[in-house]
Amino acid sequence: MSTDTGPPQGQLKYMTPFPIAPDPPTPKPIPDIIHPDRSLAERAAARFSLAGKHAIVTGGAQGLGLVSARALLDHGVSHLAIFDVDEKQGEAALEHYRDASMNEESKPVVVFKKVDVTDEAMVNEAVQDVSHNFGTIDILLCFAGITDSKLAVDYPIEQWRRIFDVNVHGSFLVARAVARDIIARSSSGSIVFTASMSGYIVNTPQPHSAYAVSKAGVHHLTRSMAAEWVGHNIRVNSISPGIMNTRLSGGPAQAGLRRLWMERSPMGMGDPEDLTGAVILLCSDAGKFMTGVDIRIEGGYTIF
């Protein structure tokens, strides 16, 4: 039996409306070249340039997050903050990032912060500290996440909740803190969540209902945040990796599963580097008309 709680209490708030753009000029039969003073190579590079941008990457101390964060530096990010709960791995990754930067003339600023993305106070403090030291935050990549495989009938509720705390609530907390900073500064930014092809399919044979449902939640978190923040010049998108060749899938213990995955994946297993093209697209001017979008990077796994 339901109980009618009555109308909402207090002032009802609505999403920030997006401004209606003016009618653009009539297109020319042959459009003007953007930046006609630049060479062909310079114009091509400018589309995907992140020169001078400031970024935060959660889960950037290892795996997919490390490779994508390194790609940000390759494309010109000048200030990079890595958030990760593993302090030892974070310090090792910090040295790797510094060594990987090939721009000797203007070495990027790279810092590491030990951050548990499920801790609201820690997240808010870390984002505020980065904003204060960097000046602005232009890019957020959310790679912090965990997985687990258990039959639903055996799933301890504490472990189920932990999956959602990291994958969904953690993504929300960091994105909210960054969005608040961007809105307060009246600037703009790009947020990229990491979902999964498991948010679309039941990724058998391993049973991981909590992980799959959490990643489906990330898909809709992407759309919801994109709708709320488009009026603040914040784009929110996500990527959905498939089976990637990382420590989670490449060890001897996964040999049996790998054979099954390879039988089902038309293009085999992906490399972490395969994610970087979509990441750079979503963070750069090349993707400036994209928001609320999820890009599947799964080698055709979900075609069949």
Structure explained in plain terms:
With 304 residues, the protein is α/β, with parallel strands linked by helices. The protein has helices spanning 40-47, 63-74, 87-100, 120-134, 157-185, 209-229, 247-250, 255-264, 276-283; strands at 54-58, 79-84, 109-114, 139-142, 189-194, 234-241, 294-297. Strands 3-2-1-4-5-6-7 form a seven-stranded parallel β-sheet, with helices on both faces. Helix 4 packs parallel to helix 5 (157-185) and helix 5 packs parallel to helix 6. The longest helix is centred in the middle third of the chain and has 29 residues, at 157-185. The protein is globular and about 60 Å long.
Write a concise keyword list for the protein shown above.
single chain, 304 residues, alpha/beta, Rossmann fold, seven-stranded parallel sheet, EC 1.1.1.250, oxidoreductase activity, acting on NAD(P)H, oxygen as acceptor, D-arabinitol 2-dehydrogenase activity, NADP
Task: Please give the structural blueprint.
Layout (H helix, E strand, L loop, with lengths): L39 H8 L6 E5 L4 H12 L4 E6 L2 H14 L8 E6 L5 H15 L4 E4 L14 H29 L3 E6 L14 H21 L4 E8 L5 H4 L4 H10 L11 H8 L10 E4 L7
Parallel strand pairs: 1-2, 1-4, 2-3, 4-5, 5-6, 6-7
Examine the coordinates and then state which fold CATH places here, giving the name of the CATH topology: Rossmann fold
Helices and strands: which structural class? alpha/beta
Which percent bin holds the helix content?
Answer: 25-40%
Give the helix tally: 9
Radius of gyration: 21 Å
- Report strand %: 5-15%
Kindly report the average pLDDT value. 93
What is the CATH architecture descriptor? 3-Layer(aba) Sandwich
Number of domains: 1
In the CATH hierarchy, what is the superfamily? NAD(P)-binding Rossmann-like Domain
- How far apart lie the N and C ends? 43 Å
What is the global morphology?
Answer: globular
Instruction: Please mark out the parts with pLDDT under 50 across 5 or more consecutive residues, or reply none.
Output: none
How many strands, what sense, and barrel or not for the largest sheet?
7 strands, parallel
